[in-house]
Each structure stands twice: as C-alpha cells, then as structure tokens.
Design a protein that fits this description.
The complex is a heterotrimer. By secondary structure, chain A is mainly alpha-helical. Chain A has 12 helices and 2 strands; from the N terminus they run αββααααααααααα. In chain A, helix 2 crosses helix 12, helix 3 runs antiparallel to helix 9 and helix 7 packs across helix 9. The longest helix of chain A is centred in the N-terminal third of the chain and has 33 residues. Chain C is built from 14 helices and no strands. The chains are: A mainly alpha, B alpha/beta, C mainly alpha. Chains in contact: A-B, A-C, B-C.
Chain lengths: ~280, ~425, ~280
Amino acid sequence: MQRTGFLFLAPYAVSFAIFVILPIVVSFVLSFMRFDLTAQSSAGFVGFDNYREALQDNYFWSAVKATLLFALMIVPGLLVIGLSMALGMNAMARGQAAVRALVFLPGMLNIAVTGILWQWFFNGEFGLFNFALKHFGGQGQPWLSDKAFAMPSIVLMSVWWTVGGTAIILLTALQQIPGMYFEAAALDGASTTRMFRYITLPLLKPVMSFVVVTTSIAGFQMFGQAFMLTRGGPELSTRGVAQYIYETAFNSYRMGYGAAMSWLLFALISVFGIFQIRMMRRPA
Amino acid sequence: MSIFSNLGIRGSILGLAAIVTGIGVTRSCDGGGIVTSQHRVDLTFWNGFTGPDGRRMLEIIRDFNRENPDIQVSMQRMDWATYYNKLMVAAMDQRGPQLFVVHASTLPRMYRSGFIENSARLYSGSDPIPSADYDPYVLQQVKFKDQYAGVPLDIHPQGMYTNAEMLRAAGIQQPPADKASFMRALRLLTKKSNSGDASQWAFALTLWRNNFQSLIPQFRGRYLKPNGDADLNNPGNIAALQFLGDLSREKLIPPPENGLGWVGYRQKKVAMVWDGVYMLGDLLRLQGLDYVAAPIPQIGPQPGTMADSHVLCIRKGLSEAQRTGAETFIRYLSKNSIRWAAAGQVPARRSVRQTPEFASMPVQSAFARQIPFMMYPPRTPVLFEVTLEIDQAVEKVIRGNADAKTALDLANVNAQRGIDRDRAEQKIAPAGGIQP
Amino acid sequence: MNRSVWKTINGIFMRCVAALMILPLFLMLLTSMKPEAEVLNPENVVPRVWTLSNYQQILGWAEEAPFGRWFSNSVFISSAVTLGVIVFSAMGAFAIKRLRVPGGRQFLGLIIGSMMVPGQLFLVPLYLILSKLHWLDTPAALIVPATAGGFGIYMLSQFMEDMPPAIEEAALIDGCSPAQMFLHQTLPLCAPAISTLAVFTFIGSWNDFMGPLVFMDSVRNYTLPVGIALYQTSYYTEYGLTLATSVLAVTPLLVIFALFQRQIVSSMAASGLKD
C-alpha cells in the first residue's frame, strides 16, 4: 500500500525536485558566486560580495523604492475598488452573473496584449486618453513620460487588469454572510452605514486579509506592466526589483548578482507577508 | 461544465491526451518528413529588423534563395533589445543562428564571448570583399587585433529631417546648417498658441541620448580615455549636453514630459528632428509629408554626428559547407546593399555609394555626407552599463533636474565603476581593454 | 430614497462599470481595422476607412509571422501542460490524502512554502538546468517544468481532504487496488475540482510570457503572446499591426471564456474562501 503510494507520488515529486527544489538550491549557490554567462572561465565564489554590493547599490534601492510605491498603490486600490464593485454586484437584483463575467474578462488577457493596448491608450500624441481629453476641451497629459504620472498610470492599468478577480472573491464572501444578521440589525433600527461598519467589514476581514496578502505578493513581483509601458522610465522611476534582476541577468549577464537580488526580494516579500498576517490577525 | 460532465472526467483526460499526441505526432512527421537534398545548406539568419526594413530584407533573401538553390536562408527578427539577450545566450549554448547581425558598437562584448567566427577569409581568397572599399574608421570597428568580426553592411548616421513646407512658410529656404541659422529657425518656427502651449514647434528631441551623442563629436568630446577609462565628463561632452539643456530650459523645444519627438514630426507639429537614417522607412509609408533631409547642423566648433553599423557575422563551429554558404550570402548582401539602402540605410561600401542609384536617394545621400565626421558609440564590453549612465545624465539635464556637469560627473563615476568591475572580473589590465 | 429606485440605479451603474471594463477590447477591435495613418491621427473612435489590411498583412506572409504555427504551438503546449498538471497533481494528491504516504503532510508544506518564492528567482537556474538537459528551444522546456507547479496538487489535496474516508474503506473491502480506486472513484468524484484546475492551467499556460521569451529562440517555436510582441520595435511601433495581432491572440481565449465562463468565475471566487 505504501509502495503504491510512493509510486503515485513519484511523477510529481521527481518533477518538483528537478524544477522547483533544484533551481532554488542553484539560485542560492549562485548568489554567492561571480558567474558571468558569457565568460564562464571567470566564475568563482565571492562570499557575501553580491549581497554587500546590492545593499550599497543605488539602483537596487531605487528599484526597491519603485516596487514599494507600486505595492502601496495597487493593494489599497484593488481592495477599495474591488470591494465597491463587490458591494454593487451584491445589490443587483438581476444580471449579476453577466456583470460578474465581464468584470473578470480583462484578467484573462496576457501582459503583452494588455501592455500594447494601454501603451496606445496612454500615448501622448495619438493615444485614446489624450484624444478624449482634447476632444472635451481639456489638455493632454503626459501619462507615461512624467515621473509624477508614470507609476499611477501603471497602477491604473494593473487595476483594470486584475480588479475583476478581487471583486469576485469579495463578492462571494459577501454572499456567505447570513442574511439574518442584517435583518436583525434592521429591526434594531441600524443604518446601512452602521451595518456595513459593524457587520459586513468584520465578517469580510479574513477574505480581505487573503486579498491583501496575495495582491501584495504579486505587487512586489511587478515586472511585465512596467516593462511593457515604460521600460522602467522616466529616470528609472518605474523600474522595480524584478526588472532590475532581469536586466542584470540578461543584459549585463551577471547571474550571481541577479540571484543575490532575487533572495533579497524574497526576504522583502516574506517580511511584509508576515507583518501583514500579524496585523490582520490582531482582534479589531 | 457541460463538456466535462457529458464526457466524464476520464474521457476528457483521454481526449486531451489524444490532442497532445495528435499534434505531437504531426510535428515529428513534418520535421523529419521533408525531403532535403543532400547538397542543400540550410542557414538561419537573425536580426532586429522588425519594421518595414525587415520586410525589405525578406525580399532580398527571397531573391537570394531563388538564385542559390543549394543554399536556403531563413530569416528571424526580434526587437533589438530582446534580440541581443537571445543571441548571446543561444550562441553561448552552441545553438542559435549561423548568420546574424550585430551593431558595431555591440561587437566588443559579443566578440569577447567567443562565438563569432573570424571573417578574415571574406576579405581575401577568391571573390574577396575589397577592404579598400570601406572607410578605414568603419572597418576599424569590426577589427580585433588582426581578426575581423564580420562585414559591415551599412552605416546609419543620425541626420536632420525637416518639414520643407513649414520651413518655406517661415521664409527659410534651406535647412539650417550652422548654429546661427539653427537658432534663427528655432525662433521663427516655434508658434505659441493663445492657450500657452505651442501649436507648432521648430525642433523636438527624439531619442534624447542619441541626439546628445550626435553633438559629442561636434564639441570634440569622447566617451573613453585611450586607456579605456570612462571620460564622460570631459568639457566637450558637458558643452554638448549643456546646449540641449539650455534648449529645454528656454522652452525652445517641447516640454520634456511631452516630448512630441518623431510622432510630432510625422504629424506636422514639429518642423525639424534629428534621427537615424532608418526612420526613412517610416516616412516612405506616409503620404503628404514634404520632408527634406540634411546633415545635423554644426552647433559646436566642428561638424559631427553619431552613427553605427549593422555588421554581418558568422557563428563559430559551423561545418565547412555551412560556413561557405554563409559567406556566399554575406557577399551577396554586401554586393546588393543598394537594395538594402532603399529601406533607409547608407551602404558601407564606397563603390555602392558612388552609384547613380544611390545619388538618386536624397535622404540617404544627404545623411551620407556626414560620414567623414561621424562618431560611433563607445567601444567597450560594458556598453550596456555605460549607455544606461549616459541615459540617466541626459534625462536629468533635459528635465532640468541637474546641470550638465553634475549629471555627467555622476555618470562618469558610475560608468567607471562598471568598467573597473569588468576588468577585475576578467583580469584585464587598464591599458588593455579591446583595442582595434 | 426609495429602496427599489436605489436598486435600479445601482443596477444601471454596475452595468456601466461592466461595459467600461470591456470597452478597451472593443476599441482595440475597432482600431485594428483602421489604416495606420488614421491610427496615428485619430479623428474618430469609429474608423473613417474600414480596412482589413492589417489582418491581411499578418496572415498573408508566413515568412514574416508564422501565425498558424504560433497558434498550433500554443494549443499544443497549453494542452500538454494541462494534461501533465492534472495527471501528476491528481496522482500526487491521491497519494498524500487518500493513501496517506508517510511524510505527505510535510511534503505538502514544502510545496506551499515553495509557492512563496518569487518567480524571478527561478529564471536563471531553470535556464541553466534546461540548457544541460538540451531542452532549450523545444516544447519540453515549457511543458515539463510547468508540471511541478504547486497550485494543482495543493488545490486537489484540499478537495480530497473533504471527501469522506468511508468511500475508500468500502472500496478496499470490495478488494479494489489503489489504481482501480483512483481511476474509478477518486477521479470521478474530483471532476469539478479537476476541470477547474484544467481551465486555470490552460489559461495560465496560454498567457505565459516569460517562459517562451527566455527559453525559446526560434520564431517558429514561439507561442502567440511572444509572437505578437515581435511587432513592438525599439524605434516606432506599428500600432495597427500590433493591435490586429492582439485581437487574433485574444480571440481563442474569449471562446474558451465564453464556454467555461461560469466555471472560471466561480472557481476564482472559491480560491479566496479557503483558510
């Protein structure tokens, strides 16, 4: 029985060992090495040099800043807009299923299509947004070419792309709240706002914490959005850690340094993840 | 849901397996099933010509394949940035194309990696490509000690595109050629509308870094010292960048966050831009734009512009048949480079530039006049890092966040750090570097 | 305000929101039918001149963009990944939850832990491993590593945990072998979870961008998303062409979405309910 059990587990376990565990080990070893893909003869161990270099590297810190900025905008953005959409859908008498499907649809697109589409929307000269603004007598805005606009523009696209999933998760949680809570509160003469504050929000808390944790993990790994829209500009203000790692590995061919920065990113994600879970678990 | 429940889960999985095996089997058949003549050589040719220029290249290759039935070249193109990542890693892995294009400026890094074949054979032997047909400066870019990394196909300098209609309307008959006439044109052609934002601009920057690089030779600037150290903050570079910074500060060009650039020129909102000769490919598709090309006006003490070349290279480790086939193809492209020139390029070979056909290409000819004064990007294996630093400095100055000296001082420190690191890792002495 | 009036307003508003969400896709379709000159000088949202020239150009010249080949690559790779993930994950989850192999719980913990590791970290090591295996630029590079994903086995384990143990006991008493049990009982019972996993895996694989970008070299081995990105150039983008290719790349997904809409949306919803 147990032998059969291991036989059943074997295909997945082998694949997992080769393509998950082994890369993690390789990456860990690489992070202590100098390893230039194009000059492999010069490879060798350098101890903590890569980590030390990263902590002193201004570009690394500006990438961390961009990553944090993105996460700090996208997480509340998704939570607030997603919750509003969920509340709106929940209150619908008819047509909820169709709205639910349409709202989720953008999430089906890949980042290449999404990026191409929004790059065209944001284009300063012939883009849709400035076309519409000028049409109604406004002025065109530098959506992607100004430091103050670029990151919010990327966040805007990301919200469109992913808010559907968040809204649907929250909607489902809303529908799980037993109706009698609200009926009882209504009998006591509670206002809608008070019901929202004292019934809906506390009961949604576990799901909201799930949303916050998953969207921040995704946010910290932001790569494709900025890569497609701004390539990290203007003045590197939107180049996140993930993009810097990619460029280090595949433009500068410094695999060791790239690996070290990946582990620092992992550390950053873990610290925030643990912090968020602690915060959310605290009784209100 | 319905599909799954009707078939049952096991049926669905079997169906999926059938699809996979089906496509898999067809795949393996069509791979092995093609009857290839034993004498035919198949070559893949990679490049970054993703625009209309790539379509022109495909036409040339189609003709080559027809004229040389024993050699079949198939072309693959990717955006340059992706292309270089892929070329490098694929070639290091003994895969990748037999033939490929590398910018002259990117050669030092690629050549050092050791996957590019020495092309010296092409310049000698039977049916040689005459090396005297190239400008010495251009040929020098592909030479490493006594080896040739490839054959330069073209030269693509930056030049000035003007909108003749707008110039005439402002009473300007000739594209400005010196600083005085350029500055005069800036004032005559820029028209501010009532709302405060100009309805017409005389000049706009396109790729900021490249525009700056075009001014570097004019102010006798340079990128590197003879020993290979960074020299980004020399007085010439500072003066060149200062000029662009002043244009931006005095609002003689569109605000940096709304740089109309090339699109503005296409849309007749900008009268003059500096850009590469390859942008002609875009104009050729456009109707109703009366464009006239000219050299970059002389802003500094001497004329100058930036340029680069597409170099045709062969991968190491090919069979003799493949290598000979690849050489035949390179000879063919080089001889027929007038056809390539039509896509918006200046042929690297002088003899081709002296043909009446080339003289009948006004934009290409105008840009070609700058060949004696052109300057290629720095010849260093850490080009990516140095370029990033120049980019940062130029952005800061154009946006008014730093003066030229401060920005270039910082860029120089950072660039030098990259150069030092590379030397330490490669164990190269400072004076070494890669010398022609 | 009257409650029913309020409800009506909300209904109208939410329909507008939904329309706004898919508006970009309609604009993409409309603009892909404009000639390039009109794309760059928009006067109207609806094309002045309707043209299919962008589509003709993409589909017309196979040397330039082997669109059919990319499409069949995408179908092949996504189907194979889906098959592999289902089979490996279902067998694995069965071993852990129903056959209760020793150390199964710990193994599941390890899998979940590995899901927290950022994707960037895998890129370079995977590249090196695939290079050693000589799998680069072959479909195997995109198919086999994908079967190691943790999501499938985690999800199916959760599902199997909720199944009553009595089922197996009965089967064992009847003298079923584990293999028979797996094929005839567990799989059919897990059908809803497996079909959800299948749809998600298929979409995820179809949309994968990084994998094909880094592991495939030959244009004829590209998948659709990476193929369409070829039209973005460093100097200027031919928007008409790019948008038309995007439309072609998105259409198959929209068909899948139309077929499995209810299931996709409800499994998305369920993903938030655990723990």
